[in-house]
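Predict the holo structure. Ligand: FE2/S2 (inorganic) cluster.
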Amino acid sequence: MADDHEYSSGVSRRDFLKISGLSAAVPIVVRPNIVQVGGSEVHVYGPGKVPMTFNVNGRKYQAELEPRVTLLDALRDNFDLTGAKRVCDRGECGACTVLMDNKTVYACSVLAIEAQGKRITTIESLTQGDKLAPIQQAFVDNDAQQCGFCTPGFVVACKALLDKHPHPTEEQIRQGLSGNLCRCGTYEGIRKAMAQMSGSSHTSRTVDTREVVAEEASVIHG
Ligand code: FES
Ligand code: FES
C-alpha cells in the first residue's frame, strides 16, 4: 500500500509525516528509526510494538508494547497489576495513582515508554503477604472506603504524603490529596485514617463532604 511504503532508510512515509509535524525544521533521516531534527538525533519508536523494560515494585517486567500504551494499561493488561484503577482515564480522578521515583503520578496519563528507567511503585507493594500496611489498616479502622474504586489511589497518595510529612498539617493533607476524588464521599474517613497515622487529632474534625468535593474539584479543574 502506498501509504505504508518504506523509504530505503526503513522509516515509512506515514512515520516520516508524523515526525515532520514535530518541528518546523525538516527532519533528515540518518539511520532507520533515527532522524536529525534541528541538529539533534532523535530516536523514532513505533507505531508498532517495541520492547520495553520496567522496574515495578523492585521487580523487572518486560513487554513488547506500542509507544501509545499508557503505564496504567501496561500495568493492568500486561503485568496483571490491577490495583491502580481506570476510572476517568484522563488525569482527573486519581484512581490510577502510582509512584514514579517516589512522586505521585496518574498512570493513565504517563506513557509506558516514558516510565522505563523509573522506579514504579503500585498499591500491590504495600501489603506483606496477608498483612496490611499500616495506612491500609488505618483505612479499614476508619471506614475510609465504600465502593473502593478510588481507594488504591488514595492509599498510594496518602503513603507518599506520609513518607514526606510523617505528621502532616491539615493544609498538607488537603494539598497532598487534592488530586484524588471519591465519588462515595469517604473524605472524613480518609482524614481520620491520616490522623491515626500521624498520631494527631486535628484531622479528625467532622467535615462537610459536599464542601470538600466542591473544593477538591475546584483544585483539579482550576
Ligand atoms: S483514571 Fe487516571 S486520573 Fe482518573
Ligand atoms: S469509595 Fe467509592 S469512589 Fe471512593
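The pocket of FE2/S2 (inorganic) cluster (ligand 1) is lined by residues 86-89, 91-96, 106, 108 (CB under 6 Å). Helices lie at 13-20, 71-78, 112-115, 134-141, 151-164, 170-176, 187-198, 209-221.
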